[in-house]
């Protein structure tokens, strides 16, 4: 199961329907947000895992604890419960100082209120952790080894036919821009509302978190991310 399965496969379809019903949001709008938000979450985790051994260990622990409990086998239970304060904190831990930027960008582009975008992200966070938990277990059983960075890189590399062009995983590609724009991404367009999709998923995520890009560019990037996983 790769990231496409999580977004547009059976689990993604159940998640979209469950979130739509729980929060009272149009299903097509929900699908768009899910398709754009999950790659952003995965990529932020990938960046954080590579930033320091301490952060990587914290993410490992979160995957082991927050991702356990058979969430993927009981999605109805997750959505019946609704977003909790703990899950909202998970979103803040994933995106850090970019949390408000992510919520506002998704809200403006989708037409869904910031509050409900927060609810969607809070419901997606444990789903993402459960997915990573399952992938981690499968990796161990197959004897493939590798660390958290390899796990996340492999998952993100399976996101689309273009993603393979990002080479050794997207961590290196987004690392220079995800930290709040303190460093630049030479491949990111400036003064343009059209994202550069030639580098695949990794470049798109990097461009989204690059503070040099305006809201129109970020909106186009979100459309491109969602389009990668459209049915």
Write a concise synopsis of the structure shown.
68% of the residues lie in helices and 0% in strands. The chain contains twelve helices and no strands.
Share of β-strand residues: under 5%
Order of helices and strands: HHHHHHHHHHHH
Task: Please estimate the helix content.
Answer: 55-70%
Number of helices: 12
Radius of gyration: 16 Å
* Distance between the first and last residues' Cα: 16 Å
The total of beta strands comes to 0
Overall mean pLDDT stands at: 74
Structure description:
The protein is mainly α and 231 residues long. The chain has helices spanning 3-8, 10-23, 27-51, 53-66, 75-81, 85-95, 99-110, 114-142, 148-157, 171-175, 201-209, 215-228. Helix 2 (10-23) packs across helix 3 (27-51), helix 3 packs across helix 12 and helix 7 (99-110) packs across helix 8 (114-142). The longest helix is centred in the middle third of the chain and has 29 residues, at 114-142. The radius of gyration is 16 Å and the shape is globular.
Strand and helix layout:
Elements: H1 3-8, H2 10-23, H3 27-51, H4 53-66, H5 75-81, H6 85-95, H7 99-110, H8 114-142, H9 148-157, H10 171-175, H11 201-209, H12 215-228
Helix pairs in contact: 2-3, 2-5, 3-4, 3-8, 3-9, 3-12, 4-8, 6-8, 7-8, 7-12, 11-12
Question: What are the key terms here?
Answer:
single chain, 231 residues, 12 helices, 68% helix, globular
